[in-house]
Amino acid sequence: MEPGGSSSEDGKQKKYGNIEPVDKKEETSDEKVKMKKELGLLEGVAIILGIIIGSGIFISPKGVLKEAGSVGLSLVVWCLCGFLSMIGALCYAELGTSIPKSGADYAYIGEAFGSLPSFLYLWDSVFIFVPATNAIMGLTVANYLAQPFFPACNPPDIALRLIAAICITGLTWLNCWSTRVTSKLQNVFMVTKLLAIGLVIVGGIIALANGGSAMFENAWEGTATDPGQIAVSFYSGIFSYAGWNYLNFMTEELKDPYTNLPRAIYISLPLVTLVYVLANVSYLAVLSPSAMLSSDAIAVTFASKVFGYFAPVMPALIAISALGGLSCHIMTSSRLCFVGARNGHFPDCLSLVTKDRLTPAPALVFLGVLSLGYLCTSDIYRLIDYASFVESMFILLSVASLLYLRYTHPDLPRPIKVSLGIPILFLLICTFLVFLPLYVRPIEVGMGLLITACGVPVYMLCIGWKDKPKWFKRSLYKLGFASQKMFMGLKEDKDD
Q: Distance between CA atoms of 210 and 224, rounded to whole angstroms?
């Protein structure tokens, strides 16, 4: 959309993006109005681990096992999802260092294929994937907080939604208040996550030593043979690994991104793959496949069988872990909305940063409201299928942009340049995952494609159409001016 618009009403109004409070010159004369580079290597690793090990590993094993049909295939799916994430992360390391802009996929798709495809990614991310993922994480926190109080039945649906809403609202406020505090808090959450996963793995080792290996005797019994169903089983696994590309959303806030971005990826992904596979082996060493499929809180069920009186510790750790993942996802995804507005694809009122805190508060609040809307359903597994399809579709396009830029811009500086076979392999696997489930999950896939298609007329009307009527520009001006006053927001200063 046009950046805020302007109005000549009474000859007194200026474009709101250029309005400066009386004290702006006094308070910001020594530094630019711009989000700061406050993230080092440790924070980068904590952000990736914070998003990936958020909630998926504590709920997705059920979804993977249900579609895979057998213990053996489910473990293979987990290993392959880790491998897929690793080669995808290598591709994104090249993209992130050759195009060092915040926004990740949005920036890469726009650089390669132009304005419309990048807008459609922004459209789908902001209205489907980001708020759906926030809702999933919020409901996971709610499930694990409420489960100990309802041991014999499921917690009330309205209670889960209310707890999730409180978590989303509170963490949105925290991210509005301080990026530095939120990023430092991720270091604490990272320790909690690894402790929770560590307890699961230790419990599994103890179970295996006491005869738990019997659970793996008929590991391939009931294995799914339908390729579409196998592809769907990957969706829950991919959801658990989702987040390996999210540090790319904050490249502009990362210290020495050419070094710290790839290092954070290389440290995080092998570690996550290892602990995920070990955690699933531990679950299956204690719980039968039928017990896993009947539980909505697998780690709690696992802890009740392994840790006895100390079992209540597990849901507390998992709730904190999922809360950290939610906080991290809110922080990183808001930069996507912010960058899209800064580039003119969303209303300019979302591209403001607060005067005192230098945080993108309007974008954070906007995504927070959308996330609350997705709490109208508490069916986590439907949300996972819905969100994973949309994300996989655009990750496919992002990696295609790497190959396209290799061909059209061979001289583009590439501090990291992966072997050509890696993006080609990733592209083939993603194509399988995107298109095979078309007949297995036609409603979810159809709705995802429909919402994507709805972005085309919106683009034509709001961005492609340049000569808009005065009332439209005036409305955007008033919206932006109200946002600036509400959030005490300013436009970012441009780099020299």
A: 30
Q: Residue 299 in contact with residue 240, Cβ under 8 Å? A: no
DSSP 285-322: HHS-HHHHHT-SSHHHHHHHHHTGGGTTHHHHHHHHHH
pLDDT averaged over every residue in the chain: 80
* Dihedrals phi, psi of 93, to nearest 5 degrees: -65, -40
474, 342, 178: which is closest to 350 by C-alpha?
342
pLDDT at position 162 is 93
pLDDT of residue 171: 93
**DSSP states of 148-165 as a string?**
GG-TTSPPPHHHHHHHHH
The continuous run of DSSP H or E covering 491 comes out as strand 489-491
Cα angle for residues 124, 41, 195 (degrees, 5° grid): 85
3-state secondary structure 59-107: HHHHHHHHHHCCHHHHHHHHHHHHHHHHHHHHHHHHHHHHCCCCCCHHH
299 closest CA partner among 275, 283, 313? 283
Intervals of the chain under pLDDT 50: 1-29
The CA radius of gyration of the chain, in Å to the nearest whole number, is 23
Q: Give the pLDDT confidence score for residue 163 in this predicted structure.
A: 93
Compute CA distances 477 → 22, 31, 492, whole Å: 20, 27, 17
pLDDT tens, position by position, 70-89: 888 989 998 888 888 888 88
To which H or E segment does residue 239 belong? Answer: helix 227-241
Give the global pTM. Answer: 0.75
Whether the CA torsion 123, 127, 132, 133 is positive or negative: it is: positive
Token pair of 395 as six digits: 């990750």
Contact at 8 Å (CB) between 236 and 60?
Answer: yes
Q: How far apart are CA 489 and CA 358, in angstroms?
A: 9
- 94 within 8 A of 417, measured Cβ to Cβ: yes
Nearest to 130 by CA among 322, 335, 314, 267: 335
Per-residue pLDDT, 24: 42
pLDDT of residue 38: 62
The number of CA neighbours under 13 Å toward the Cβ of 479 is: 18
Dihedral, CA atoms, 381, 236, 297, 79, nearest 10 degrees? 170
